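[RESIDUES AND BACKBONE]
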Amino acid sequence: MHEALRIPEILCIILGSLAKRHLSHCASVCKQWSNVSLDIMWHEVSDLRAFFNLLAPVGVQSGRKKTGLESYTFLVDPEPKDWDRFEKNYCWRVRRLTLKIDPGEDATINSLLARVALIRSCRPILPNLTEISYTGLLDRGFNECATLFMHEGVSKACISQLEALDCHSFLQVIRSRMPLLTHLELGISPIPQNLAMVNELVAALPRLQSLIVPTFSDASPVLRALVDPAKLTSFQTFYRLRDEISSVVPLSILPHLNDLRISTRYRSLIASLQSRMSQLTIIYVLTNILESPSDVMALLSAVVQTCPNLSSLDLQCDRVPRPDDEPSRIQMKHLKPLLACSTLTEFYLEHPYALALDNKDIEEMTSHLKALEVLSLNTIVREIPKPTTSLTLEALLSFARHCPRIGTIGLFLQADMTVSTSEEILATFPSNSLQNLYRFEVGDSYINNPMAVASFLGEILPPGAEIYHHEFCTARAEWEQVDKSLPIFLEKAIQTRRRMDELKKRIRELESQIGV
């Protein structure tokens, strides 16, 4: 055996890239390989049936197949001595537990858990567990399955309730069994019964640093319940369709907030941004109303003034245009406040109506926001009929000039291209630009002459770059043609560049020989 394979760190990297079925073979090589392989195999458990099969053989309970609700049981009941072996060899390896209980299989592993509860020791079942993730129905046998593994060592808990049910008793168990949580995610229904208990739960977790809660109409009680608001660095409201959105978010009490992802209206967030948030670098906002361009402008102004170190801004809208709505289009003048945010690396904007932008606007935006890595501007238009746009493929020239780190570009544009137009644009295109671009999102963009577009993009995009169009794009067939042709044009462009480089090199050699 090579000496490098005896170094645990190197061995862990190598074995970490293998599938579980291969790791089981590696575990039988030697004692060292066995320990490393088992650590990797059981670092995360998502199938308790497979995990408990190491304790004793597990099978389907006789007579339950006909019902369609399979119930798993131990074929041979394990004894306390079996548990001692299982605990010594496997339980301590698990760091992450992911449980998903299907509504139609709520009793699947109940018999397994009942036997484990009977023979286990007084110690936690998974003593080194740090993360727990539950998805299921808290009123259908899920409580027993979920709470059995909770203990004080768990620092991260993610709970997702499938239906609008009262989770009061389950949240009480979290409070008593996992008091040292630093990350809490509650994907539960925002009904009044749950709101009161969420407040009590948050008030009992002194180490909380990251919090995700349902989208209550008023988030103030939850945030004011924090034991130490200064510790919270990430806050998110969990939004589901037809939920209310938050109207009040007291950000002033969260001085070290770094990541904010909420469902609220722009004016509510503007009212919350009253003090300087120097630590805030990520903002995601989802609104469910038609925000006016002036409100978009006001929000951008408030964000830029209060968040000097902002790196990512994502403005989304869960709203479909109605026939009686008056189209209100965002123009460059409404986006101008953003140009003062030189630290911005990602900007996403979604609005029910197409943006009224042209190539000059993109030039102005990119010339100010030179650190951009992602720019996505309303690629999918939900208006009927679909409006026209003034943006063309020439807008990519602005990214090539000003944004060397750009990796994703998303635009709703008119992709018209002819041979003469292509040659004219390429003549002004900076060499070796857009080298980091790997994703070009065209959404529901118009396109004419797909082969000419593919040829043009093949000249400017780097190898491996991909084009993404919307699933229901009206020009889907044309963009799919571009997808199929692009790799050919990319390879052709690479070969052309190689020949040009070889030619330049040969010219330099000849010049040196004749002393030029």
Q: What stands out?
A: The longest helix spans residues 476-513. The chain is about 35% helix and 15% strand. The longest strand covers residues 131-136. The two ends are 58 Å apart (CA to CA).
